[in-house]
Amino acid sequence: MRRVSTGENLREPQELPEDWEGIFGLESFKDRLGDLSWLKNPALNDIGWFDTGIPVPPLPVSEDNVSKEIKAKRQVKILLTESDWSMLSDVPMSRDKKTQWEEYRRALREIKLQPGFPDSIFWPSIPE
Predict the structure, then answer these.
(1) In Å, how far are 65, 76, 106, 118 from 70, measured between CA atoms?
(2) pTM of the model
(3) Per-residue pLDDT tens digits of the chain, which is 128 residues long
(4) Are 44 and 22 in contact, with CB atoms under 8 Å apart?
(5) Helix (H) or strand (E) holding 103
């Protein structure tokens, strides 16, 4: 936050000055900044806003905002990572069992090709 009259940056928590510049993190509210009535403080309604040019860091991604597609892709990546061991050459398993693991991993990689993706996904069974 910066004091408009002096340009001085406010570095420590303190009472909000009369000529405060803006509040960090309101980037997503730019379309509402012309009408500050939502602040329920008439003293703030006509102070005006301007872009300081300071880049605003992206907001953290909430699991609620992550699409089903991204969640499914994450799950595929987790399952593939958890099954990486099955592809090592020194793992003692029969050729038939190795083929089952290969087919399982291929099915995971092809999940995004399923007709119902990402709303309806058939998850392959882990080989026993």
Answers:
(1) 10, 10, 19, 9
(2) 0.50
(3) 555 566 666 566 556 555 555 555 554 554 555 554 545 555 544 555 556 677 877 766 666 666 888 888 889 999 999 999 999 999 999 999 999 999 999 999 999 999 988 888 999 999 98
(4) no
(5) helix 95-109
